[in-house]
Every structure is written in C-alpha cells, then in structure tokens.
Amino acid sequence: MRAIYVDKHIPRVLLTKVLAPLWPGFVWTPLSSARVTDLPDQSLPGPDWVRVENRCCGICASDLSLLFVRANPSVAPSALPGLNRFWLGHEVVSTVTEVGPDVTQYEVGDQVIMDSYHYGAHCFSLGIQPVCRYCAVGNTRFCINRSEPGLHGMGGGFGDGYIAHERDVYACPPDLTFDQGLFVEPLGIVMQAVLRRPPEGGEKVLVYGAGIIGLLTTMVVKALAPEAEITVMARYSHQAELAGKLGASHTLRVRGREAYAEVARITDGKFFSAPLNKGIVLGGFDMIYDCVGDEESLTNSLRWTRAGGTVMIVGLHLSPMKKIDLTLVWYSHINLIGSFMHGHSEWNGQRKHDYERVIDFYRQGKFDIAGLITHRFPPKDHKEAIRVASHKGKEKAIKVVFEHA
C-alpha cells in the first residue's frame, strides 16, 4: 500500500519546522517527519472493517500544515498519545474492495467518502461499550476514548487506498460525480460551521479568506441564507473573481487601515483609529466567518463585527496565538465561536449528518463546483502537486487534486 504520512517524531518534527520554510524540498528527505512509502498489505484488523481503493483526493491546507510542520507541537491536541501518525489525504472518494464478515453498510464495489477516519479512533472502532456521550450522537470526532489502545487503520487519501472501520466512511451516491464526491468532505466542514450560527434574513456577512474553505463558505451561506449580503476578503484576483460568481456582493482586496475604512463603508459603520492603534469599526458586520483563523484575521474580525455580532472560527491555525486582542469580546458582547470538522447539525428542526445535507443540496442544484478544481495530478507527481498547492497565488490554484487512473 502506497501512503504519505507524517510521524510525531519530535526531533524530525522540529528539524522540519526549522528547515522547510527555507528549503521546502526538505520534507522529502529521510531526515524530515514525512514519509512516502510502500507499506506491506495487512489483513483487516476487525470483522467490521473495510479496505478501499482511492479514485481521487483533494489536497487540503491542513495536509500542507502537517507536511511542512506549520503546526506547533505545543498545541493542546498534540498531547494526545493516540495522535502519533497522520495519514495525509482526507478529501477522498474511494471504492470498497474488501469487507469484513460483520460489515452491514457496504459491499465490494460501493463508492465511499472518508468520514471520521481522519480524526482517529473512536468507541466503535475500538470496540468500547457503552459508547461515550459524543459517539452516541454521531460526533465521533470528540470521542473521549480516541487515544485509548486498540485497533487502528492505515493509509490515507494521498496513497492508493486505506483500511478503516465501516463507521469511518460514508456512502457516495452513484448520481454524484467523483469531483462532487471529493467536495462533500470540505463542504461538510463548512456546513457544520455555518449551521452553528447561520445568517438571518438580510444580515451583512463577511467571509474572511478566499481559499477553498472561504469560497465554499460563500457557497453554503448563499444556499442557506440567500438574502444575506456577503462580502469576501480575498488575497488574489482570481479568488475575488470566483467569489463574485459564487454569490458575493462585495470583495475586499485592501489591507491595513484601508480595509477598516472599506468595512465601515460596506456596513454603514464608523471607523476610528489612533496613532498606536489601527482602529475599530463601530457597527460592522453581523456575522464573520474567519476562514483563515490566525492572529491577524481574528483580531481584524473582532474589530469589524458589530456589538452583539458573531465571529465563527472556521480556518484551522495549529499554533498558539499570543497577540490576539480579545477586548471586543467583552467590550462589544461579541460571540466568538469555533467549529471543527463535520458531524451532525440541526437546521429547520431536522438533525442530519452534514454530508447528507451537502448531498441534498447537490441534488437541489444549490452547489455548483465548476471552476473550483484548477489542477489535477497523478499520485506519482506528488511533489509537483504539493508545490502547486503551496503556491496558490503564483499558480492561480484553487483546489489541487490527485487522480488515480
């Protein structure tokens, strides 16, 4: 089984973190924390496990963060002993090639999408009964037993296949194309985030960041709240153009005080600044989805949100943030909320898996992914694919995909 993975080998992790920004090719050397290898095939570890063969897989920013160790090993989740190896590639569509005797949901030949396998173990894969409070309601990503010893899968989306518990994958309907199936996972992440605090009526919404998660957030907000007035903060012109096609009424491409002044204009707010302070907007956006999630974006988001408004952290920044101005949380009663991956959400009185809702929206014609996949590579060209995905501005990349023949 061909796979690309990252091990939590602290000396190699620290060496990669120091050298990769100066020499990106270091990640492909034997001294890095990453490995590209052919692993011997193993038997299914349990009777309710499946083996799959990959068809296509998107490259996610979180994959790149792990590969180049942009994550900081001091962040809280790194303390979990069960998180020692990270198989890269989770936006993946696969075909089931083997099922254990107790598998009830799938047969050989079924198309599936990776679901909770990326999060690690859970009560079902570990065979723990009774299951914990989170697994009981389908949110296995919060399982309190996920670092307990037990059966674990192997492989990921960047390789040719993987082995997982049957609850770690989700059926990909035959009426979806492989491209549509590939986007179910990132759309599920966004669906979870937006439904934690969906826009109401004609609220003014900012999507901060126009990478793939920001663009998909624009798409989901437009589908759930078509009356909302959406502004997208974009770094590159090709991102801004696509954001407009997906439903954004305004795009922001300026930075610094200019951005503050533009936010005030769009929201009918008032901008104030001082010599040692880049400022604050009174009466800003009702809702901001921060799809970057770093110190700058969160500080700006809090200063651009109206009193009583909400900032939703959608983007993952895997390092401690020490310079965020949180005064607006109490000064303006701003709600600061985080969202992690996908699971089950409630909307219009119905509780569904986020994937199910994404698939429903596909069938209703609410999601159009045309133009989102900009580059396709065979897995053997993984180095070039990673290079392109790491230089989105220069390469005008939105989503870079591995395709198996």
Question: What topology emerges from the helices and strands here?
Answer:
Elements: E1 2-7, H1 10-19, E2 34-38, E3 49-58, H2 61-67, E4 85-87, E5 91-99, E6 111-114, H3 123-126, E7 154-155, E8 161-165, E9 169-171, H4 178-196, E10 204-208, H5 212-224, E11 229-233, H6 237-245, E12 250-252, H7 256-267, E13 270-274, E14 277-282, E15 285-290, H8 295-303, E16 305-313, H9 327-331, E17 335-338, E18 344-347, E19 350-353, H10 354-363, E20 373-377, H11 382-390, H12 392-395, E21 399-403
Parallel strand pairs: 10-11, 10-15, 11-12, 15-16, 16-17, 20-21
Antiparallel strand pairs: 1-2, 1-4, 3-5, 3-8, 3-21, 5-6, 6-9, 7-8, 13-14, 18-19
Written overview of the protein:
The model has no long low-confidence stretch (mean pLDDT 93). The protein is 27% helix and 27% strand. The strands form 5 sheets. Strands 3, 5, 6, 7, 8, 9, 20 and 21 form an 8-stranded mixed sheet that branches. By secondary structure, the protein is an alpha/beta fold. The protein has 2 domains: 2-172 and 373-403, Alpha-Beta Complex (Quinone Oxidoreductase, Chain A, domain 1); 189-338, Rossmann fold (3-Layer(aba) Sandwich), CATH 3.40.50.720. Strand 11 (229-233), helix 6 and strand 12 form a beta-alpha-beta unit.
Keywords:
Quinone Oxidoreductase, Chain A, domain 1; alpha/beta; Rossmann fold; 12 helices; 405 residues
CATH topology of the largest domain: Quinone Oxidoreductase, Chain A, domain 1
* CATH uppermost class of the largest domain: Alpha Beta
CATH homologous superfamily title of the largest domain: Medium-chain alcohol dehydrogenases, catalytic domain
Q: How many helix segments? A: 12
> How does the helix and strand content classify structurally?
alpha/beta
Proportion of beta-strand residues: 25-35%
- Rg, Å, rounded: 21 Å
End-to-end Cα distance, whole Å, is 16 Å
Number of E strands: 21
Q: Low-confidence stretches at least 5 residues in length (pLDDT < 50)?
A: none
